[in-house]
Input
Amino acid sequence: MIPPDKNSAFVASMEEVLDVYKRPYDESRPVVCMDESPKQLISDARKSVPMASGRETRVDYEYIRHGMVNIFMVNEPLKGKRMVEVTHFKKKQDWAKLIKRIADQLYPNAEKITLVMDNFKTHAASSLYETFEPQEAKRIWDRFEFVFTPKHGSWLNMAEIELHVLNGQCLSRHMSSMDEITREIAAWQNDRNNKNSKINWQFTTKESRIKLRRLYPSIYG
Output
């Protein structure tokens, strides 16, 4: 989505994100992106007809819903690594536990973790304080530098790109249980990490001031 013209709040946040993406790789101060997406649990109402010589697989249009799960995507673009977690919900406590895992399991030795994400209501210090004791909440919060993408600017989050790849390569078919999705995602994650697959991000502040010029406010009336 593109915001209305002359949107100073959008361009300020956008340029902050783009500046972060220009930083060289620093193991002690990793740049990490995080996003989340729902996935519907679905099973076929009728058994599919398998592929045969001269005939494609046939899948009936009817299906049975089994609820939803949430998929958290965490990726470090410059290192070509990602971690995916499947949860029943995406409540404050789910996000807070994910943040603790990033800090203590993925980057225990980092001086500061720069985390790029959107402004979803659960992405706040309050989520940590509603999940952990105050001392622990403050300890986790202090491990991070949080950088938020602007409203209507989810495309600036490289974790969203990873989610698109995940959906296209792994989740484009019916899956009926959380266990099945978790297994499939784990296999996809291991394969993509072993290939050291990276995102070739090339959009810069200089380009944004040309291609998205209409979004910048005029100071000359």
